[in-house]
Amino acid sequence: MEYNTQKTLLQMPEYGRIIQQLVERCKEIENREERNEMAVAIVDFMGQRNPQLRDEENYKHKLWDHLFILASYDLDVDSPYHIPTAEEMKVKPKRMDYPVLQGEFKFYGKSILQLIDKAIELEAGEEKDALIQVIANNMKKSYNVYNKEHVQDDVIFRHLKDLSGNRLDLTVLDSLEKSKIYYATNRTNRPNNGKNNQSNQNSQNSQNKRRNFQNNKNRK
Known about the structure:
DUF4290; 9 helices; mainly alpha; 60% helix; Methionyl-tRNA formyltransferase
């Protein structure tokens, strides 16, 4: 009995041993044209075995890169893309800079900062005022969720002013409850009063019908 540990090492286990064996067979073909044809067939087969790759950008390019990885970069075929080397594939991607927020503001997240930048760019007017109030409402929600406590509106106003470099100011409002945006948001979160009223009306009609039926029955 032959154990997997005694077989050839799989370069990419997700493709399985069958594809690995096909790649090894492709490397042994002496005729270049036949070798190219088999390489194309293997790439198509790899795509069929891993259909989820089709949702990724440039998935064909990735399949060809995987083909050369499976061949340990020792496959002489005509690729429609740049043929990678082991050294290139070992290069680590550049480290991405993580967005840094000041200590007490970290729970607001990057999206709030992007909205603040957008609001700063807008000219004074109703659109800008509405966006500022939307930002403040979302800041309040984020604060309450992260800190698990209710925050006063004047704290949100101060944070908004600090994050915007004193360019966005809501201190003219007594509270967010005075904002039209606040009321519009909360109305959408409330149950549909029209449906509730209709349901109550239907229930009342049913009760009246049962009462009338019982009264008529008693008269007889």
